[in-house]
Structures are given as structure tokens and as C-alpha cells.
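User: Could you go from structure to sequence for me? I need the amino acid at each position, not a summary. C-alpha cells:
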């Protein structure tokens, strides 16, 4: 009987080792190969749709899959479901209770703040591709609500991701395309402020040149003379009105964002003080450590999430229309945001893990005093269930770039050249028709 129970415990430990990335590996490989049918089958076989705790991630992945294959209605239906599930994630009473004695992966997945913003980005792109400007404008309003919530969530925390410059920029581009000059100006101005006050420090991203040009143009179109002069002085630029023309806004989604993996860290008590230490990261933190259970535990190993970067193959890209070239400027570094967000949450992850570990160790110790083999069994089970939550939305790009290109009347052949640090290029050609007015949106993703 002892042998059977120990074998069961060992099998639990083995089964719990797969990360979220490994679980969905077939889905990601099929996506990379452009085999959307196989990707859909792999996603359905993963069982994430039937799983209460992973259902929101299923619909996020499903929404992206349908987006990639050009099914705008199916993509928005899935993403709408994901957004609804994300709004109700805090009501997972059973999952939260189970997480207290197992691991954070027992909870219904809570999308990161930037993942929630990206849901609306893909929905807005779907509406624009379908020619539904009103639907895209609805998404800008939803983005604005989320950004207000994000600011309220972290009041006074200037050193963390608490606003999204790209989200404001996207709203400005959509309002601009809809002819709403006033709201376009407000959104462009907000984007510039976040780049200047936050993104420049946190992520090394300053206001893109094209955003400066659009901010000047929208100030001029609104008749905001003083604002126009102030921004001209700030940017060292002089605005010169241009004749009306159709413009192309092209987004380049480059590479893939990070995956979450797990890492082990040690917690030791020294002279009545508990220290959390990780040699690789160079982190040593004092932690709350009191109570009868704590005095009997002298060392613990924690499993916490960490990000693994997937650096993209292509480093830069440029659009060419005739003799004119337009470099694509980076406007959002999702990789850096993900790393920053997780690092800011490290202390909370640690404080969530400590009570759970102490309870496990206390039960293990009491059981082991009466029946050593039961203590051994519980030790194996505790180790198996002490797993980091490695879930995240892994089809998000590493970074987002964009450019605005004026089009001549008639057909325009646009050349996109993506270049690696080694000088390797991938050329792609597109044809867009200009008629002297309006804005066209297009999106390209490179996963290599």
C-alpha cells in the first residue's frame, strides 16, 4: 500500500512539471507554420476550453487564431467572450480556496493588464478590416475605461506600468481616421505624455516622430494655435499643412513575446530573520516570518514564475513608396512590459506563497512524527503541487512598430523590408489604392 501511494505521488510530481508553453506547443508550432486548421485542432485538444481555470486563455488564443486566418467576426466573438470572462475572474471562490493549499495555477487565469489592452487592439483591427469604423470606435472607448482603471489601480506608482502609450496612440489613429479631430488630438496628446513621462524611463521609448507630426496636425486642424506653437517649440519642428491624401497606417507586429517558465528560490532563516534569496537574479529580501510553524521550518524551496525572452529575428523594417522611405517606429515593447510587470509583482508572489508553504510543511511535519512514510508521501505531493503559474498569452508580439505613408491617387505599390542584425532581409509587396482621402489600416506580423 505504501509503495502504491508513493508511486501515485511520484506520478503527480512528474505530471505537474509541464509549463503552459509546453502544453500548447503543437498549437504554437502550427501557428508559426501558418497551418491554421491544425492549430485549431491542437487548441481544442489541449482541453483549455473545458477547463474553468483556463477558459479565458482558450478564448484569447482562439481569438488570435481566427484573427490570423482573417475571420474577423469569429475572432471578435472569441475575444468578446475572453473579455467577459476576464471581468468575472475575481469571483472564482473555489479556485482561490484551492490555490491556498496547492498553487496559484488552481485559480482562474487573471490576464495581465497589458493583455487586456491587447484584446481591444485585436478587436479594433478586426472592425477596421471589416470596414466597421463605429465598432472600432467602441473599442477605443473600452480602452479608455481600462486605462482609467489601470491608473486608479496604481495611484502614485510612477515607476511601474500604469498607463499605455500605444493604447492612447491607437485611439488617436482611429479617431483621426473617423474625422473626429478633437478626440484625436486628446488621444495623441495623452500618448505623448505617457511616452515622455513614463515610457522613456521604464522602457527606453520616446515619442515617435510620426506621433509628433500627427499631434501637430491635429492641433492645427482643431484651431488650437497656442498648443500648436507650444508643441512646435518642444519638438523643434514647424508644421506645414499638406494637401489632402489617402494615408496608409501599417502596424508591424514583430516576433513573439516572452513565455513564462518557473524557477526555484530558497527561503532560509538566520538568527530569527527569514531571507528570500535567489543567486541568479541577485535578489535577497527579508520576509515576514513569525508563528509556531515558522520556528520549526528552517529552509524552503519556492517555485515562482519568470519570463524567458524570445528575441525576434528581425530588428528593423522600412516601408517604401516610390522614392520615399518610411522607417517603422517602435511604439510598444510588450516583452519589456511583461518583464517589468512580473518583477514589480515579485513581492506579492512571494507573500502569497509563504502561508501556503508553511501550512504544507506543518502538515507534513505533524504527519511524519506519527508515520514517517506518510510524511514522505506528503512531502512528494507538496513538492508536486508547489508549481509556479506559467500561464500567459503567448501569441502576443515581442514589439509593435508603425508608420504612416501618404498614398498617391491610384494604385501604390508599397515595399516592406524587414532586416535582421546580420543583414538578412525579407521583402514583401502590397498594393493600396489612394483616392485623395481617408485612412487605410494594414497589419503585418513576423514570427521568426
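Assistant: Here is the amino acid at each position, in order:
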Amino acid at each position: 500500500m505504501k509503495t502504491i501511494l508513493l508511486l501515485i505521488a511520484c506520478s503527480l510530481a512528474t505530471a505537474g512539471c509541464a509549463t503552459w508553453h509546453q502544453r500548447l506547443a503543437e498549437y504554437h508550432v502550427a501557428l508559426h507554420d501558418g497551418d491554421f486548421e491544425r492549430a485549431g485542432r491542437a487548441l481544442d485538444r489541449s482541453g483549455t476550453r473545458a477547463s474553468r481555470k483556463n477558459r479565458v486563455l482558450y478564448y484569447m488564443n482562439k481569438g488570435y487564431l481566427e484573427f490570423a486566418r482573417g475571420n474577423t467576426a469569429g475572432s471578435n466573438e472569441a475575444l468578446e467572450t475572453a473579455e467577459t470572462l476576464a471581468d468575472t475572474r475575481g469571483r472564482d471562490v473555489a479556485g482561490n480556496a484551492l490555490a491556498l493549499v496547492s498553487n496559484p495555477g488552481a485559480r482562474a487565469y487573471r490576464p495581465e493588464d497589458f493583455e487586456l489592452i491587447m484584446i481591444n487592439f485585436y478587436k479594433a483591427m478586426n472592425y477596421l478590416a471589416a470596414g466597421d469604423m463605429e465598432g472600432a470606435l467602441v473599442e477605443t472607448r473600452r480602452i479608455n475605461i481600462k486605462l482609467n482603471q489601470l491608473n486608479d489601480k496604481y495611484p502614485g506608482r510612477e515607476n511601474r506600468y500604469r498607463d499605455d502609450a500605444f493604447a492612447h496612440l491607437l485611439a488617436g489613429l482611429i479617431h483621426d481616421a473617423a474625422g473626429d479631430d478633437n478626440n484625436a488630438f486628446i488621444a495623441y496628446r495623452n500618448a505623448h505624455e505617457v511616452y515622455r513621462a513614463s515610457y522613456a524611463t521604464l522602457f527606453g521609448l520616446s515619442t515617435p516622430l510620426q506621433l509628433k507630426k500627427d499631434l501637430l496636425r491635429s492641433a492645427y486642424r482643431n484651431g488650437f494655435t497656442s498648443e500648436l506653437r507650444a508643441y512646435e517649440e518642444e519638438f523643434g519642428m514647424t508644421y506645414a499643412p499638406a494637401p489632402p491624401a489617402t494615408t496608409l497606417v501599417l502596424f508591424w507586429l514583430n516576433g513573439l513575446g516572452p513565455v513564462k517558465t518557473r524557477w526555484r528560490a530558497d527561503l532560509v532563516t538566520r538568527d530569527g530573520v527569514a531571507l528570500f534569496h535567489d543567486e541568479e537574479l541577485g535578489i535577497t529580501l527579508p520576509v515576514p516570518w513569525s508563528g509556531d510553524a515558522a520556528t520549526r521550518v528552517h529552509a524552503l524551496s519556492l517555485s515562482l514564475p519568470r519570463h524567458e525572452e524570445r528575441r525576434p529575428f528581425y530588428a528593423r523594417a522600412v516601408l517604401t513608396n516610390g522614392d520615399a522611405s518610411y522607417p517603422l517606429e517602435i511604439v510598444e515593447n510588450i516583452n519589456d512590459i511583461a518583464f517589468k510587470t512580473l518583477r514589480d509583482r515579485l513581492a506579492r508572489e512571494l507573500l502569497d506563497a509563504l502561508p501556503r508553504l508553511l501550512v504544507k510543511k506543518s502538515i507534513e511535519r505533524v504527519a511524519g512524527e506519527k508515520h514517517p512514510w506518510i510524511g514522505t508521501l506528503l512531502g512528494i505531493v507538496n513538492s508536486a503541487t508547489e508549481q509556479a503559474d506559467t500561464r500567459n498569452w503567448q501569441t502576443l508580439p515581442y514589439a509593435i512598430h508603425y508608420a504612416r505613408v501618404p498614398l498617391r491617387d491610384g494604385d501604390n505599390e508599397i515595399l516592406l523590408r524587414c532586416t535582421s542584425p546580420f543583414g538578412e532581409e525579407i521583402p514583401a509587396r502590397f498594393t493600396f489604392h489612394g483616392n485623395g482621402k481617408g485612412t487605410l489600416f494594414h497589419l503585418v506580423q513576423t514570427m521568426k
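One structural detail worth keeping in mind: Confidence is low (pLDDT under 50) at residues 1-16, 293-298.
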